[in-house]
Amino acid sequence: MRCPKCNIEVSKGQNCPKCGVDPMLSSKIINLSDALYNKGLMKARISDISGAIDCLEKSVALNKNNIDARNLLGLAQCEIGHIGEAMRQWKLSAKISGDNNQANEYIAQMQKNARQFEKYNDSILMFNQAFDYIRQKSDDMAIIQLKKATEINPKFIDALNLLSLCYLMQNEKEKALSTIEKALQVDANNNIALYYHSLIFPARTRPELAKPSKKASVSAPSPQLPSSGLSRLSASEPKNISSSFPIVGILGFIIGGICAFAILYILIMPARIAEKDSVIASLENDIFKNRENYESLLEEAKIENEALTSSNESLESRNSELEGQVLIMDKLRKVTDAQLRLNENLYVEALDIVANIDPANLPQEAIEQIQTIRSTAYPALVEENYRAAMIHYNARRYTQAQELFEAALKYLMPEDLNADDVLYYLARTVQILYDDNDTAKLYYQRIIDDYPDSNQAANAIYRIGLIR
């Protein structure tokens, strides 16, 4: 066989004499990484982007030099709008191998379309602003920001999911369903979108997605407003009218007017006064009726206001319920993330994640999963640090051994099989390094008190006797 790292011949069943790598195990890991890449590729082809990302992340975790898996992972992240993560994967790929690497072409395309890249960054800023609006209970403002973000990047899966949640919070199920279908057309097995769909249709397992239109949508350019100036108005000159009436005519006109007014007052005014009284009476009657109508409308308005107040309280209760669901979903996402880290043997990262999860309101299954993560990670970290510490201890590198023994002690559980060994050799290390018998005595006494039937109990009693 040949060592996959040094490319030198190695006898079957032997480790590489140069780098110490087991070629059989290394080949199996590389094959498993390639198998996960193939699985991720198949999922990507059927629009299962979430499944593809999961497989590809595991693939590069097993083999960080798997260039094809890393490049495809970048494309998958780009497909759901995670442009920054995509660029990170491509840059890592280009750093690992720069020759004939498609990652260089992807990076060049992004740099060539710098304006579009800036727009995608703007969509992320809008998404973050929408999150802040939701925390402030300004759902309408959040919807405006999310619509803008999805117009810039229609495949921004996080923005689509958050927009669906906003519509659900406002009980606009048709709009929410439309947005959920858009999200599932981008990522067919997106867990969050499927969960929101189950809230609308509890009895239906999966939505029947409409086929996307083949016509490409072209966004119209923004029109340019022409510069406008003030229009000038031309004023026309007034015409002069000459007046040359005789004085006799004027007097006759005045006398005739006085006579006509007297006749009108004597003959017509009594009838007009009676008519006016009738109109006044009618208006008073109308005023009375309008007052009754006003009081009736006011009573109806009070009833409607009470109904709206009750509806508002119901909506606030529903809003609080949805906020609780969002919080639980975030906790479940963290539990899943911790499980992935545990599967990749990243024990410290897995424990850091579960340490920040409040188990309140979580399903019993999730609480049990958190306990499983802890009960798996703690012994593994103790074993890992203890073995490494013993190598340094046997080689008389006591400073390094002390650090690793203390790291093992940090994750030590009462039922751990290595507990007595960790305490004993840590005590011996502090005695050798610092001649610190007081600290060592505390460790020895802990072995005697907590692990009286262990292998090191007798040695601890013996060491305490020497100190005294």
At CATH level 2, the architecture of the domain at 364-467 is Alpha Horseshoe
Mean pLDDT: 80
Shape: elongated
Major β-sheet profile: none
Whole-number radius of gyration? 41 Å
Uncertain residue segments: 209-254
Strand content: under 5%
- Structural category is mainly alpha
What does this structure look like?
The protein has helices at residues 23-45, 49-62, 67-79, 83-96, 102-112, 114-135, 139-152, 157-169, 173-186, 191-200, 247-267, 269-343, 347-355, 364-394, 398-410, 419-434, 437-450, 457-467. The protein has 468 residues and is mostly helical. Helix 8 runs antiparallel to helix 9 (173-186) and helix 16 packs antiparallel against helix 17 (437-450). The relative contact order is 0.03. The model is unreliable at 209-254 (pLDDT under 50).
Compact summary:
The chain is mainly alpha-helical. The chain has 18 helices and no strands. The two termini are 59 Å apart.
